[in-house]
């Protein structure tokens, strides 16, 4: 099916006064540290336990060929831990960083996911860490752990022992997903955290365990399993509990009939729950080879599928993933039907969901989803896997810069050391025309400039500039590269005739690109001069025979009329011209006529500083500035007519300071005015560049793995559309 690739939301406006997202091309595959998976129909929904992950939708109608059909990157989907699907909603437990709660995603259209609701439950009263999730009717049940920050006790050495962990169960009313409320909560243990949770027949069953592979919990007591009466969510009560050494490390829970199956440290334990007030251990199976690191469980018929992983001691960072099929036809005599182990596709196996003849395993350390044929539970077979890097848009992962021509956008990305050509002739269906990845010459590619049939790309980690032939956009080819310590941490490139000017941690370097197949370093700023005025270069733009450079000392002008040999610094803003230190921490710089516009984000100024460059070979002077709380995070800037488009980086992405763009009216330097601001976590987070082309601002967002097109509203009659491909 077609998946929304770009949303087109354009309005009519006679001047740059109302920003609107006109397009968005993004890698919608968010499988980094794939952690959890749930299935609905022909679609698998995968969550990646990472701040830059989200929810990925994969078409699994052909298990041998998984296809990404949609995805959602959102501020309320950081660190998704568990996914439960009911009807048209995916209930996602999020728990990472300082955010713990429940996010509800509308999945009626798998290619166009939207957040329908969110509630945060983190706090002293509620869990500091949420663990598992169960949905029952109009209620969601969250298990987690609360650390009593004031519960530490003195130790013999005059300090305090760590505060105890309290297991918590929180009940949320989800009848109205747009207005989720807390219905009730209770402590379920005063020494260990609450882990797995499942519901049935008016009870919530909670596994409480201090995981240990040695057979003892940190508290010195065995794990426990509790039945909580939830008939009145506002008045929860413990109905029964069972403690046993077979429950050490109790984690995920699944219920079948009168038996609850609890994943434990090295195995699986069956608990008879026919009488919640008097539960008993029915059976248990322990095997460190097949269950060590066991985390998740799914039951289909008489088989329980358990996944987990353990570290391969000989290979740091490599985890042997395991999927084990357990015959549970006789709960008192559990037996292993078969098991499959793998340190590649199943590396870090963490979540499992079964549909038909296949089990889908989320693998944290493989950043992907593995498919295992389970039609014969006595002979499990790995069918294939889809990794994050398999995505056709993976070249956009960690996007760091974009250069635009009439028909194509040229994008470089750090995550996969990539260069991609995006066909933009039809904004309704932007596609990747061609791409290359090179972990050496394009290692952590940072910027790109286009000259004729060539793209010139800087690599921060290879200390290089690379020339790529783009004559055939479907088949870009690297033709040469120049590597030099002078280019260490190269971060930006601009073209000046037959020369490329590169900024790096060592200042400015000029490279002759007359013959792209034979790049040659020809000039630089001498070390003694560079250390004074060009250390920590942050912004670079070229106008005429001058390069304007920002660094921690302010703004400097470099004469590049003769790029060969030692370049010379002509002008700068002296300290007495900037008594308020407005330029103490500048960002990008843009030039328009006789003025340089510098983005700043310091305690002294958050916004834009305008510098008079009428005399670039002398002392520069500050002409004007604007500091406005709406420009918080200002680091990038581009000029179009009488307007400055300011890029705002995300300062605190979990709350209000989201990344975005702002428009500043610069027609009257004595009255700089903020006209409009647009912020959007899912599209702009990690904003690291802004370019103007064809009536649009093109913003690159490394954390969102995409390029955002923002209509600048210059008077054209624009149409609201939705774009799919």
Description:
By secondary structure, this protein is mainly beta. Among the domains are: 287-390, Lipocalin (Beta Barrel); 393-572, 7 Propeller (Methylamine Dehydrogenase, Chain H), CATH 2.130.10.10. The model is unreliable at 1-14, 149-163, 211-220 and 714-725 (pLDDT under 50). Strand 43 and strand 44 form a beta hairpin. A five-stranded mixed beta sheet has the order 39-40-41-42-46. A four-stranded antiparallel beta sheet has the order 2-58-57-56, with no helix packed on it. The chain is built from three helices and 59 strands. The longest helix has 7 residues, at 527-533. The protein is elongated.
Helix and strand topology:
Layout: E1 4-8, E2 20-26, E3 34-40, E4 43-48, E5 55-59, E6 67-72, E7 80-86, E8 89-96, E9 99-106, E10 114-120, E11 129-136, E12 139-147, E13 165-173, E14 181-189, E15 194-200, E16 203-208, E17 223-229, E18 237-244, E19 253-256, E20 259-264, E21 267-272, E22 280-286, H1 288-291, E23 294-300, E24 303-311, E25 319-327, E26 335-342, E27 349-355, E28 358-363, E29 368-373, E30 381-387, E31 399-404, E32 408-413, E33 418-423, E34 431-437, E35 445-451, E36 454-459, E37 464-469, E38 477-483, E39 492-496, E40 499-504, E41 507-512, E42 520-524, H2 527-533, E43 539-543, E44 546-551, E45 554-559, E46 565-566, E47 568-572, E48 586-592, E49 595-601, E50 606-612, E51 621-627, E52 634-640, E53 643-648, E54 660-665, E55 673-679, H3 681-684, E56 687-693, E57 696-701, E58 706-711, E59 721-724
Parallel strand pairs: 42-46
Antiparallel strand pairs: 1-59, 2-58, 3-4, 4-5, 5-6, 7-8, 8-9, 9-10, 11-12, 12-13, 13-14, 15-16, 16-17, 17-18, 19-20, 20-21, 21-22, 23-24, 24-25, 25-26, 27-28, 28-29, 29-30, 31-32, 32-33, 33-34, 35-36, 36-37, 37-38, 39-40, 40-41, 41-42, 43-44, 44-45, 45-47, 48-49, 49-50, 50-51, 52-53, 53-54, ...
């Amino acid at each position: 099916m077609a998946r929304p690739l770009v949303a087109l939301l354009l309005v009519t406006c006679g001047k740059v006064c109302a920003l609107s997202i006109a397009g968005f091309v993004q890698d919608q595959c968010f499988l980094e540290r794939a952690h959890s998976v749930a299935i609905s129909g022909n679609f698998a929904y995968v969550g990646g336990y990472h701040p830059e992950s989200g929810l990925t939708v994969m078409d699994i109608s052909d298990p041998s060929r998984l296809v990404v059909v949609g995805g959602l990157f959102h501020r309320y989907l950081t660190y998704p831990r568990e996914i439960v699907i009911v009807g048209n909603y995916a209930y996602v437990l999020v728990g990472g960083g300082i955010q713990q709660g429940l996010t509800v995603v509308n999945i009626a259209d798998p290619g166009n996911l939207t957040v329908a609701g969110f509630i945060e439950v983190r706090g002293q009263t509620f869990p500091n860490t949420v663990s598992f999730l169960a949905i029952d009717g109009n209620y969601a049940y969250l298990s987690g752990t609360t650390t009593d920050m004031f519960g530490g006790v003195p130790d013999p050495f005059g300090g305090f022992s760590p505060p105890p962990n309290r297991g918590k169960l929180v009940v949320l009313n989800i009848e109205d997903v747009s207005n989720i409320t807390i219905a009730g909560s209770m402590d379920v243990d005063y020494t260990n955290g609450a882990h797995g949770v499942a519901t049935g027949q008016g009870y919530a069953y909670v596994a409480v365990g201090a995981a240990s592979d040695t057979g003892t919990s940190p508290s010195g007591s065995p794990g426990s399993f509790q039945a909580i009466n939830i008939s009145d969510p506002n008045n929860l009560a413990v109905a029964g509990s069972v403690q046993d050494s077979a429950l050490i490390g109790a984690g995920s829970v699944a219920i079948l009939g009168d038996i609850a199956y609890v994943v434990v440290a090295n195995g699986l334990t069956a608990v008879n729950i026919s009488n919640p007030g008097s539960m008993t251990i029915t059976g248990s199976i322990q095997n460190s080879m097949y269950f060590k690191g066991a985390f998740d469980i799914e039951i289909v018929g008489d088989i329980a599928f358990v996944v987990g992983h353990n570290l391969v001691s000989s290979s740091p960072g490599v985890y042997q993933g395991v999927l084990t099929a357990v015959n549970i036809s006789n709960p008192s005599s559990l037996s292993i039907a078969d098991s499959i182990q793998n340190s590649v596709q199943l590396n870090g196996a963490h979540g499992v969901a079964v549909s038909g003849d296949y089990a889908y395993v989320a693998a944290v350390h493989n950043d992907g989803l593995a498919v295992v044929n389970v039609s014969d539970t006595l002979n499990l077979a790995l069918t294939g896997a889809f990794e994050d890097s398999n995505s056709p848009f993976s070249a956009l992962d960690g996007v760091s810069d974009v250069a635009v021509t009439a028909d194509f956008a040229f994008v470089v990305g750090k995550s996969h050391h990539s260069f991609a050509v995006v066909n933009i002739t039809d904004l309704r269906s932007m596609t990747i025309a061609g791409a290359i990845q090179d972990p050496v010459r394009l290692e952590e590619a940072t910027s790109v400039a286009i000259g004729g049939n060539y793209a010139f790309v800087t690599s921060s980690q290879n200390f290089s500039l690379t020339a790529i032939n783009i004559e055939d956009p479907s088949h870009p080819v690297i033709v040469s590269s120049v590597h030099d310590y002078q280019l260490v941490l190269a971060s930006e490139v601009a073209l000046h005739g037959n020369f490329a000017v590169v900024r790096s941690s060592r200042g400015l370097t000029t490279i002759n690109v007359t013959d792209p197949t034979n790049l040659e370093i020809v000039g630089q700023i001498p070390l003694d001069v560079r250390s004074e005025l060009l250390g920590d270069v942050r912004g670079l733009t070229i106008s005429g025979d001058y390069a304007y450079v920002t660094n921690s000392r302010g703004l400097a002008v470099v004469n590049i009329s003769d790029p060969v040999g030692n370049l010379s610094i002509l002008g700068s803003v002296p300290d007495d011209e900037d008594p308020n230190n407005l330029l103490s921490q500048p960002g990008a710089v843009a030039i328009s006529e006789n003025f340089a516009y510098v983005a700043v984000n310091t305690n002294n100024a958050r916004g834009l500083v305008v510098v008079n460059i009428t005399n670039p070979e002398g002392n520069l002077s500050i002409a004007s500035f604007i500091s406005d709380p709406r420009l918080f995070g200002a680091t990038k800037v581009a000029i179009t007519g009488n307007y400055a488009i300011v890029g705002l980086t995300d300062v605190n992405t979990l709350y209000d300071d989201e990344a975005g763009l702002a428009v500043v009216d610069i027609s009257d330097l004595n009255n700089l005015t903020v006209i409009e601001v647009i912020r959007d976590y899912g599209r702009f987070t990690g904003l690291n560049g802004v370019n103007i082309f064809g009536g649009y601002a093109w913003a690159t967002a490394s954390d969102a793995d995409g390029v955002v097109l923002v209509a600048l509203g210059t008077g054209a009659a624009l149409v609201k559309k939705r774009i799919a491909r």
